[in-house]
Amino acid sequence: MDHMKRQLSFNQLSEENTKKLRNELLDELRVSSIENLSNELFHEIFDYLDGIDIYEAFSNINYRFQQLLTSSPVLYKIELIYISSTERFMFICQQIKHQIYSINFQIPAHINELLTSFIIDSSLNRLQSLVIEDIQSDTILSFIIALKCLPRLFSLDIRTMHIMGNLNDIYRSIFALPTLKYNKLHLYGNECSISIPLATGKQFSTIEYLEIAHYYTFDELSDLISYTPKLRRLNLSHINQDDSTIETMSPINLENLTSISMYTNYINFDEFETFIQNIYSELKTLHVTFSYQDITFLDAYRWEELILQYLSQLKKFSLKYYENRHSKYSGERTQFNSLFWIERKLIMNMEINEYKILYLVSPYRKRWYEYKNCTVDYLESTQLTINYVFDGEPADCLLMYIKSILNRVQIYHLDIQRKISVDRLMQIIHLLPDLITLKINSLSFYRSFFKEEFPTTCSIEHASKIKKVYIENMQTIEEIYFLLYICPHMEFLNLQCLHGTTIELFLRDMLNKINKDMRLLCIYVSKADDNMIKRLSTMIDNEKLLSNYTIHRELNN
Question: Most buried by CB count within 10 Å: which residue of 307, 379, 500, 533?
Answer without folding.
Answer: 307
